[in-house]
C-alpha cells in the first residue's frame, strides 16, 4: 500500500510522540492540515501570528523537555518564524519547524509565496533541509527530530514542497538514525576530568559557574549534590539560574552585566572557575582580558566549538553536563571551603541586591509578591526582555517546583506571553505567570486570544514604565539623557517640546485594562506598593476560576534603574552600584 507524503507525515508525528503542533494554515500546507483533521490525538494549536507560534513551541519545549513542533505555510509564514528560530538556536531549544513550499517545478521562478527558507535559516539552525524526493521524506523527518534533541539541542527546519507531499510512496518509518558526520559527544574523557578534580582539591577559592546547559541536561539535582559534597559556592548566568535552589546557602546569585556584587566579585577573586554548560557570552564576561584574572578555568560543555571560543580555558572537557557531574561526584571526596564561603557572604551583606525607588511601584516588591502568592504552586514564570527581565532574574526564587523560562542569547522582545502559552499547553495543572514590559508585551499581545481560546489559566504581569526601559537606562547613564525614541508616550506634537515648562505629556497608549476587557478577560491596575500582593493574589484566583488569562498592569516609575550594572565591554572594576 502506498500513501501520500501528507499521510506519512501524520504517521511520523505519532512515531515521534508528538502530541501538539503549533500551526498556522496556508495554501501550501492545506493538504497536511486536512490529513491531520482526522487525528484528534494530535492537538493543533492556532496562535494569532507565526512569531507567537514559534515562541509558543519554544516555551512548550523548554517546559516539557520534548521537541516543539511548528507547521506553517510558505513565504511569509516561513519568514515569520525566523526570529523564533534564531532565539531557539541561541538558547539550545529543540524545535522541528515544518514549512510549506511551492511545488518543485516552480522553485526559483518567483512563484507566489516562494522563499528560500533553507538558505535564510542555514546560519541560525542546527540543520535546515528541503525534501526534494518523496522517498526521502521519512528519513529526513526522523533525522530532524534526532538532530533537534541530541547532543546540544537546537532548531531544525524541514521545507516541504507541495507536490512532494501529494506524491504516493512507502508507508514505512525508520526506527534508527545513522547520519554520517554527525556523532554527538558521548561519555566523558576521564583524563581531563581527573585533571579538573585535581585542581579542585588544591583550590582555596573555587567557584562553580553554571549555565543553561545544566538545565538542558536535566542535571539540577546532580549539580546540587556536587556543590554540597565539595562545599563550593555557585554563581550562575541568567540561563543557569535555578540550577540549584536560589535559597541554597551555597548559591550566591547571577553574574555579569546585571549580576549581584558578591557574585561578580567572587569571579574576580576566585582561584578556580569550574564552569559547566555556560557559553561565556559577552554579557557574562564583559572585558575578557579582565575576566576571572586570578583563576584557572575548567570548562565542561557538550559542544566542543563553545570551549575556548570566548575565554581561553585551562582544562577543556567535552561532555554532557549530567554525565560529567555524576563522574565528578563519584571521583571526589568531601571538601571544606567555609572560609571562602564566609568571605563571599560578607560581600553580600555589604552590598545586597536592593531596589530603592523614587516613584511608582517597586519592581522588587512585585517579584517578591510573585514568590509569596505562588509559593505553594508548581509554577513556571516566563519573561520578555528588558528591565523587568533583569528584576525577575535578580529576585525570583527558583527551586524544584518553580522554574523560569526566558530569552537569553538573542534577547527577544515579544517572547514572554507566547512562551507562557506554550508552557501552559505543555504543562496543564501548573500555574503560569508571564512577566513583560509594556514595550515587549505589545509586540505579541495578540496572543491573549490564543490563551483565551485554549482555556489557559495564566497571570499576565505587565510592568508599565511608559518607556523601553532598558535602552532608556543606557541613554540615561551613557548618552547624556538623550532619550531617542524610547518614550512610549511620545506623540508627534512632543517633538522639540519634551521637558519644556508647561508642556504636559500625552496620555499613554494603549489602556491595558481595556485591552484585557476587549479580549473578554479580567484586568487590574496597580499604582501603589500596598496593592501589589493582594491584586496578584486576586488575579491568580480569577485565572483559576475563569479558566483563562488575567492581566495585571503595574505602574512602575519611568526612571527606575536595574542595578548593579557593568557596562558592556567593561569589567568588575567598573561596576555601577
Report on the architecture of this protein:
- By secondary structure, the protein is an alpha/beta fold.
- The chain is built from 23 helices and 20 strands.
- Strands 3-2-4-5-7-6 form a 6-stranded parallel sheet, with helices on both faces.
- α1 (5-15) packs parallel to α7 and α16 crosses α17 (387-395).
Helix content: 25-40%
Portion in beta strands: 15-25%
| Cα radius of gyration in angstroms | 25 Å
- Termini separation (Å)? 71 Å
Shape: globular
Spatial ordering of strands, largest sheet: 3-2-4-5-7-6
Structural class: alpha/beta
Brief sketch in words of this structure:
With 577 residues, the protein is of the alpha/beta class. 36% of the residues lie in helices and 16% in strands.
